[in-house]
Design a protein that fits this description.
The chain is an alpha/beta fold. The chain is built from six helices and 13 strands. It has helices at 11-29, 49-57, 75-78, 128-138, 155-164, 211-220; strands at 2-6, 33-37, 62-64, 85-86, 101-105, 108-116, 145-151, 171-175, 185-186, 192-194, 201-204, 231-242, 248-256. The strands form two sheets. Strands 1, 2, 3, 4, 11, 12 and 13 form a seven-stranded mixed beta sheet that branches. Strands 5-6-7-8-10-9 form a six-stranded mixed beta sheet, with helices on one face. A hairpin with a 5-residue loop joins strand 9 and strand 10.
Length: 258
């Protein structure tokens, strides 16, 4: 079986390339599950209910979110209306929304959830390691494989979680930095791992934002508006092939243009 995990969708360019490529890639590569991080889909900061609906309708099975989950006003009410959208699992338990999603294809049940890292991150979050342990234990018997997204800044924290979950998750895939890493690998017990999948959106940019204002901010420290850029639009994703046992057999990083 195959799953495609799409890295952080940034603004309108990211949404447009997801809509253009997901149906094509699903058909050409025989993808069973498509998961996408959508936390930057709304002008580069957060997501709305309307955008969740359009991304799901484009062929994405599950939308995951990160530390910008609440950036758009009113989304805390909208998130509760979506069964295939999950906020980070290690946010305080009183937060609205699902802390995981289970999707099924051809009798295979895939558990999907995200944990936020805590190193260099501002979000209020519980320990991602203990949270992942608790979720896997609580849902034991209800899934056949698990995709765990680690939305974090520190590569050390991402690698540590990968090794911590080796053999218990089908894949542990990182997001948040918007810059893809070159460490796609199968860990010792056949868990697919990648520190960061990278972003889906305009790569002629600084992390998806227009270059000039960001450079200017570094030069003089003055506040500026950081609009989403438009050049060199790409879809960044990890393609994971796995057995019915839930053990990963192959991982490939993809960078696709229309």
């Amino acid at each position: 079986m195959k799953l495609l995990f799409i890295g952080d969708i940034v603004g309108k360019p990211g949404r447009e390339i997801v809509s253009a490529l997901v149906p094509k890639v699903r058909a050409e590569r025989g993808i069973d599950f498509v998961i996408a991080n959508g936390e930057n889909a709304a002008a580069g900061a957060g997501i709305t209910g309307a955008l969740c609906k359009s991304i799901l309708e484009s062929g994405v099975d599950v939308i995951t979110l990160g530390d910008h989950v609440w950036d758009q006003r009113g989304f805390e009410q909208e998130i509760t209306t979506f069964d295939r959208v999950c906020r980070p699992a290690n946010l305080p338990p009183g937060c609205p929304g699902h802390d995981h999603v289970i999707v099924e294809k051809n009798g295979f049940r895939l558990l999907v959830f995200t944990v936020l890292g805590r190193s260099f991150m501002g979000a209020k979050a519980e320990c991602p390691f203990l949270c992942a342990d608790a979720l896997l234990m609580r849902l034991a018997g209800k899934f056949d494989g698990a995709l765990v997204e680690i939305h974090a800044e520190a590569t050390s924290e991402k690698q540590a979680l990968g090794w911590h979950l080796d053999g218990r998750a089908t894949a542990v895939l990182g997001t948040h930095t918007h810059v893809a890493t070159a460490d796609a690998s199968l860990l010792r017990k056949q868990t697919a791992f990648l520190c960061d999948v990278g972003m889906t959106g305009p790569h002629e940019s600084v992390l998806g934002r227009e270059i000039g204002p960001v450079v200017g901010r570094f030069l003089d420290g003055m506040p500026r508006r950081f609009d989403v850029a438009i050049g060199d639009n790409r879809l960044s994703a990890a393609l994971v092939e796995f057995a019915k046992s839930g053990r990963a057999e192959r991982i490939e990083w993809l960078s696709l243009r229309t």
